[in-house]
């Protein structure tokens, strides 16, 4: 099938490359000339495992083309995916200016039937607004349908998630739209949920909000564990074996970050408010998440007594492993929190160093090229991102470089017993009381 994907951010580029992989002809459009020129030379605008070879392969096979002109995409494509950004406005709601702009642009170039599909995470009823906007701007007699096909891609595993989905949600308002989408996804063997457009939009909101709630729930349990001397990882294990609960997303830590959960949660709270429902449950989820970062700084403080004048080695800056993304990363608040109380920070991340470079200007933060450089002269190591490679560091060497052999593990990544056997003071989240 012939497709256009408008917006080559994280969602758009993965979507475009993966549809090409499934055998479709895809034109990916973005107004950012530098980004498109970079892509034409095989340069990725962000780090996402498995994406670069896929993009390069399909640029070469010509199943994927990239351009800055919407007209080029709309002219040939039967299906047009909207994947532009929906950033957060100061009041927490989603800014839909880019979506509206793209819809108007698409409308100008429509000459016969097209299916326009929203894939960006958008508030419920956006589909309805897209339809109204198109009706206002398309030439008389030109038919179209609007559908919602939310994505459930995680950064770091987005290509795998796209090609092996646990479900595909199709929000449609006509049999024609449904048929086109079923044909599009036919190569993927996954359960398909077909709904009306608004329900599909809500499935996305509800899924992200529910996952965020699971994380805040286990972080709240971690707080209780610390107070009574229980271990949250054991509690999560015991809970998770119940198939009604499930073990996934019960890892206590520093709270959720990234450009999806914090933003989507805030937007969902606003949407509920606008339709007259006070979603107090989600407000508590947000509050627990904020507290968890402050709690981590306090955890470091209780391990070291006084933070002022101390040097903290931070391992990991990205909001989670497998990405260079630092948007809403817990590391930002944690590093700032440490500096506010007079500590100095040395930090390392396998992917996010160049992004971090611009974020901590004016603060006493030194970015280092490896974990051992971080440890040099530091009073403690703080694990902030769960990069698997941190598990296999040479801890005896790290101990010899540290001023004090202390590790505060914000992701419960490391083995407390092994570290204690090496002579470290180990402090986890919801695991042990620091002495
Ligand atoms: C999330 C969803 O998982 C995707 O299904 C969705 O498509 C995407 O948002 C989106 O809306 O676009 P993502 O933000 O990439 O994906 O990352 P997750 O793996 O879900 O992690 C989110 C945050 O929760 C991270 O900061 C992670 O460290 C934290 N987390 C996750 C925990 O603290 N504990 C857990 O048990 C799991």
Summary?
By secondary structure, the protein is an alpha/beta fold.
Topology diagram in text:
Layout: E1 2-6, H1 10-21, E2 25-29, H2 33-40, H3 51-60, E3 64-67, H4 70-76, E4 79-82, H5 97-109, E5 114-118, H6 126-137, E6 144-148, H7 158-163, E7 168-171, H8 175-185, E8 192-195, H9 197-228, H10 232-240, H11 261-274, H12 280-304, E9 311-315, H13 330-340, E10 344-348, H14 353-357, E11 365-367, H15 371-375, E12 380-383, H16 395-401, E13 406-409, H17 416-421, E14 425-427
Parallel strand pairs: 1-2, 1-4, 2-3, 4-5, 5-6, 7-8, 9-10, 9-12, 10-11, 12-13, 13-14
Helix pairs in contact: 1-3, 4-5, 5-6, 9-11, 9-12, 11-12, 12-13
Characterization of this structure:
The protein has helices at 10-21, 33-40, 51-60, 70-76, 97-109, 126-137, 158-163, 175-185, 197-228, 232-240, 261-274, 280-304, 330-340, 353-357, 371-375, 395-401, 416-421; strands at residues 2-6, 25-29, 64-67, 79-82, 114-118, 144-148, 168-171, 192-195, 311-315, 344-348, 365-367, 380-383, 406-409, 425-427. Helix 4 (70-76) packs across helix 5 (97-109), helix 9 (197-228) crosses helix 11 (261-274) and helix 12 crosses helix 13 (330-340). The protein has a six-stranded parallel β-sheet with strand order 3-2-1-4-5-6, with helices on both faces. Strands 11-10-9-12-13-14 form a six-stranded parallel β-sheet. A two-stranded parallel sheet has the order 7-8. The chain has two domains: 2-195, NAD(P)-binding Rossmann-like Domain (Rossmann fold); 232-427, Rossmann fold (3-Layer(aba) Sandwich). The N and C termini lie far apart (63 Å). 44% of the residues lie in helices and 14% in strands. It is of the alpha/beta class. The mean pLDDT is 95. The longest helix has 32 residues, at 197-228. The protein has 17 helices and 14 strands. It binds uridine-5'-diphosphate-glucuronic acid (UGA). The site of uridine-5'-diphosphate-glucuronic acid (UGA) has 21 residues, from helix 9 and helix 11.
């Amino acid at each position: 099938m012939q497709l256009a994907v408008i917006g080559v951010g994280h969602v758009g580029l993965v979507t475009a490359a993966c549809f090409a992989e499934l055998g479709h002809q895809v034109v990916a459009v973005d107004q950012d000339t530098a980004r498109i020129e970079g892509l034409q030379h095989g340069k990725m605008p962000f780090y996402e495992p498995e994406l670069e070879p896929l993009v390069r392969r399909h640029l070469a096979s010509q199943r994927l083309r990239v351009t800055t002109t919407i007209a080029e995409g709309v002219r040939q494509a039967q299906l047009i995916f909207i994947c532009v950004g929906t950033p957060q406005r100061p009041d927490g709601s989603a800014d839909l200016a880019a979506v509206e702009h793209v819809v108007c642009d698409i409308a100008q170039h429509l000459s016969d039937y097209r299916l326009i599909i929203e894939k960006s995470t958008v508030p419920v009823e956006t589909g309805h607004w897209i339809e109204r906007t198109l009706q206002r701007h398309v030439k008389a007699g030109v038919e179209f349908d609007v559908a919602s096909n939310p994505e459930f891609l995680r950064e770091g595993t987005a290509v795998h998630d796209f090609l092996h989905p646990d479900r595909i949600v199709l929000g449609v308002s006509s049999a024609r739209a449904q048929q086109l989408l079923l044909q599009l996804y036919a190569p993927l063997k996954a359960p398909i949920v077909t709904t009306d457009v608004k329900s599909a939009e809500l499935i996305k909101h509800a899924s992200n909000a529910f996952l965020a709630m699971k994380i805040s729930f286990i972080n709240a349990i971690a707080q209780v564990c610390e107070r009574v001397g229980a271990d949250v990882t054991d509690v999560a294990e015991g809970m998770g074996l119940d198939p009604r609960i499930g073990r996934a997303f019960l890892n206590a830590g520093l709270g959720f970050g990234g450009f999806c959960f914090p933003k989507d949660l805030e937007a969902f709270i606003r949407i509920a408010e606008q339709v007259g429902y006070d979603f107090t449950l989600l407000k508590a989820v947000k509050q627990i998440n904020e507290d968890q970062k402050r709690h981590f700084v306090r955890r470091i403080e209780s391990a070291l007594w006084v933070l002022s004048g101390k040097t903290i080695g931070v391992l990991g800056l990205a909001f989670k492993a497998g990405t260079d993304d630092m948007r809403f990363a817990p590391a930002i608040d944690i590093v700032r929190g440490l500096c506010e109380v007079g500590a100095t920070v040395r930090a390392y991340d396998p992917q996010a160093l160049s992004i971090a470079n611009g974020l901590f200007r004016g603060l006493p933060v030194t970015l280092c090229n490896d974990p051992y450089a971080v440890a040099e002269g530091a009073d403690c190591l703080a694990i902030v991102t769960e990069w698997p490679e941190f598990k296999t560091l040479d801890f005896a060497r790290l101990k010899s470089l540290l001023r004090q052999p202390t590790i505060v593990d914000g992701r419960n990544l490391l083995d407390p017993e092994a570290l204690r056997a090496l002579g470290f003071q180990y402090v986890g989240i919801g695991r042990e009381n620091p002495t």
